[in-house]
Amino acid sequence: MLLNGKTGIVFGVANKRSLAWAIAQRAAENGARLALTYQGERLEENARELAAELVNPALICCDVTKDEDLEAAFVRVREEFGSLDFVVHGIAYALKEELEGEYMNTSRDGYRIAQEVSAYSLAAIAKHAAPLMEERGGSILTLTYLGGERVIPHYNVMGVAKAALDMSVRYLAWDLGEKGVRVNAISAGPLKTLASAGIKGFSKILGHMKEHAPLRRNTNQSEVADAALFLLSDLSRGVTGEILHVDCGYHIMGM
Ligand code: NAD
Fold first, then answer.
1. Ligand 1 pocket: which of 65, 69, 93, 220 to mutate (most atoms <8 Å of CB)?
2. Pairing relation of β-strands 7-11 and 33-38?
3. Active site includes 38?
4. 217 CA to middle of ligand 1, Å?
5. Which domain holds residue 77?
6. Model's pTM, two decimal places?
7. What average pLDDT does the structure give for the chain?
8. Residue 1 lies inside a defined structural domain of this protein
9. How many of the other CB atoms lie within 10 Å of CB of 44?
10. Can you say whether the dihedral through the CA atoms of 132, 134, 135, 137 is positive or negative?
11. pLDDT for 210-232, tens place per residue?
């Protein structure tokens, strides 16, 4: 029960396969009370079904491109919980047509959208979360991918957004460290989810990773959730600004 008595807000639950859902489940099993957010009406039914598996959750609609949604989400968290111990940011989005072919063909709008949803949203969320974490400190966790450090064909504009996200983790860690708020990321290996389904050649990426990762297998949701539990809990109280690779070791390889 590593999160007993703690409260958290989780962004990015779309369905059962979502990494944010795996983390939410692990956090709940470990005693946390959660607010789950979902992007919009289209996902409301899924979110309701999943939230029904949790004890006393707050369910909140929040599109991170809308300031008024973010504001309302944290007002609700303050009303329900009073304070906040952790945030899980499991959000990314790019136009499907940007996730194939050459990066140089990225449109102005495609670039803006990917950055706004996938990277800027972490800073916007941190700004709202920090005042609720002032008393006890807290942990903010996001999910990134190796495509922000190395070139993964077709990942394109999302890779550039992940590079911005990775750097945002470090700047936010510096901003918030004084208040006892830690900011970290998990760089997960490729997994089949709604988001990854939009990347051209994704099954090839999975196959390559399985063959070349030191552990000779693909990553699964459960091991990402276990690492998240460490980063959300006091076990990682000395860790901030870190990008923890949970990818069966693939990132160390030169092939
Ligand atoms: P997912 O599709 O289940 O989750 C993505 C979430 O982003 C969805 O819940 C979606 O509703 C949300 N989202 C998109 N635009 C939004 C907006 N404007 N406002 C609010 N929410 C919005 O897929 P996932 O793979 O679980 O992705 C979660 C995170 O993990 C992403 O940051 C992704 O890049 C990262 N990640 C995924 C993989 C992988 O292979 N699946 C690997 C490494 C990192």
1. 93
2. parallel
3. no
4. 22
5. 7-252
6. 0.98
7. 97
8. no
9. 13
10. positive
11. 999 999 999 999 999 999 999 99
